[in-house]
Amino acid sequence: MSLEFNDSQPIYRQLRDRVIAMILDGVLKEGDPLPSVRNVAAEFRVNPLTVLKSYQQLVDEKLVESRRGLGMFINAGARDLLLQGERQKFLQEEWPRISANIQRLGLTPDELLKAAKGVKKP
Asked: Angle at which helices 11-24 and 78-89 pack, to 10 degrees?
């Protein structure tokens, strides 16, 4: 888990968002363990309570489960749940701005498709 912190969000939120990105990208899969709170805290030189708070948010969102004495694990269906939420968020928050920009620039569907084909997928 590589991460540089910024001042725009609390650190616990940035840690949570990084785990979510790893789930969406397929780096962490269903049933995989999360790195231990102690290891993450030591690696990023943050308070273990900060890491625990980020992990607890993931538990509250039903993306991760805590197994007593074993650690935290990615729940079955976590990626699908995230995709559903991220798609909805994109359509409600980002798409209207993108769509308005497309219209403002007068881009045609053919131009957009041609540009999309030229973009390499990660």
From this structure: 110
pLDDT at 120: 64
Alpha helices in the chain (DSSP H): 11-24, 37-44, 48-60, 78-89, 95-105, 109-118
Residue 61's SS3 state is: coil
Topology (CATH level 3) of domain 11-74? Arc Repressor Mutant, subunit A (1.10.10)
Predicted TM-score (pTM) of this structure: 0.74
**CA-to-CA dists, residue 50 to 1, 6, 13, 20, 113, angstroms:** 16, 15, 9, 16, 43
Residue 89 Cα to chain centre, angstroms: 12
Q: Which residue has the tokens 């708070």?
A: 53
Domain limits of the chain? 11-74, 78-118
- Non-local (6+) Cβ contacts of 12 within 8 A are 50, 51, 53, 54, 57
